[in-house]
Design brief:
This protein is of the alpha+beta class. The chain is 28% helix and 17% strand. It has two helices and three strands; from the N terminus they run βββαα. It has a three-stranded antiparallel β-sheet, covered by helices on one side.
């Protein structure tokens, strides 16, 4: 697997490092973030998704990243989009 590092939370401190990578071969994002608090996870699990029902599948995980990482996410979107155009 080849991941392209895009960026890390600019306010990262010791023990906190929300990070974004792009797998250019698959056109996918890899996101490291904070584990959600139980209330957030329960809310996401209860949310009805059209055609999918509710719940978080066992092979998926909800993560949180700070909004201050918007520019990093935009860059990741651009990289992933360019990878799809090859």
């Amino acid at each position: 697997m080849t991941l392209r590092f895009i960026g890390i939370d600019p306010n990262t401190g010791t023990g906190e490092s929300p990070t974004v990578w792009v797998d250019e071969n698959k056109g996918e994002f890899v996101i490291q973030g904070w584990k959600p608090d139980p209330d957030t996870e329960a809310h996401c699990a209860a949310f009805e998704l059209p055609g999918h029902g509710a719940g978080i599948p066992d092979h998926e995980q909800v993560v949180r990243i700070p909004a201050r990482m918007v520019s990093i996410l935009r860059e990741a979107c651009d990289v992933a989009e360019r990878a799809q155009l090859r």
